[in-house]
Amino acid sequence: MRGSRAPDAVVRRRGAESPTLARPALDDGMGELMARVTGIGGFFFRARDPDALNEWYARHFGVIMLDSREYSDPGWFQDRGETVFSAFAQDSDAFGAPDRTWKINFRVTDLDGAVEELRAAGVRVDPHETDYPNGRFAELEDPEGNRIQLWEPNAASLARDPGPGAGPSTASATSSADAAGTPRDRREGG
What's the pLDDT tens digit per position in 129-186? Predict the structure, then answer.
């Protein structure tokens, strides 16, 4: 979406006086307000064995994966929290093998507990040795080799949540990944 900040937008910034913009709508450049994205409504991907992978995600993460494509089936209702949406360079090693093009990050309330449970179930999990400014992270792969990152936000990260109904925010341009795909700013665990 392109456009400038609507006049009634609320400005909130991370770190400095004003780095993040929460906006109720976008100006389309012609004085008209456009609808805005409010969050991620779905994540869709191919799998060699969809039924087995659906069951694996449900068992290890409690993520409701739809067995059918019926509109009446309920999806997974998430708790509140920040979602990072970021593109990485083609040569980034953040996704594992070069043929992998995505990685998902799940927020967790207890990283140590999640790592312990996954390891007890025979899943290889690699916690980061570093505590980042926005929390702690661990990496793993699902049975088909797709990368998963677990993130336990710290108090500072949780404090950024503007609360229900505040609308989405967009990160400043300086918080994106660098040319090598190395995360910066709030994507430290990237």
Answer: 999 988 999 999 999 999 999 999 999 888 877 776 654 444 333 333 333 333 433 3
Distinct helix (H) and strand (E) counts, the chain: 3, 10
Q: What is the separation of C-alpha 36 from the centre of its chain, rounded to a whole number of angstroms? A: 18
Could you give all domains of the chain from N- to C-terminal order, each with its CATH number? Answer: 45-167+181-187 (3.10.180.10)
Enumerate the H helices of 2-110 as residue ranges.
50-61
> Is the model's pTM score more than 0.85?
no
**Nearest alpha carbon to residue 76 among 42, 108, 53:** 42
Residue with tokens 């799940």: 106
Q: Which residues pair with 147 in a beta bridge?
A: 103, 141
| Per-residue pLDDT tens over the stretch 43-72 | 878 889 988 998 999 899 988 777 666 666
SS3 61: helix
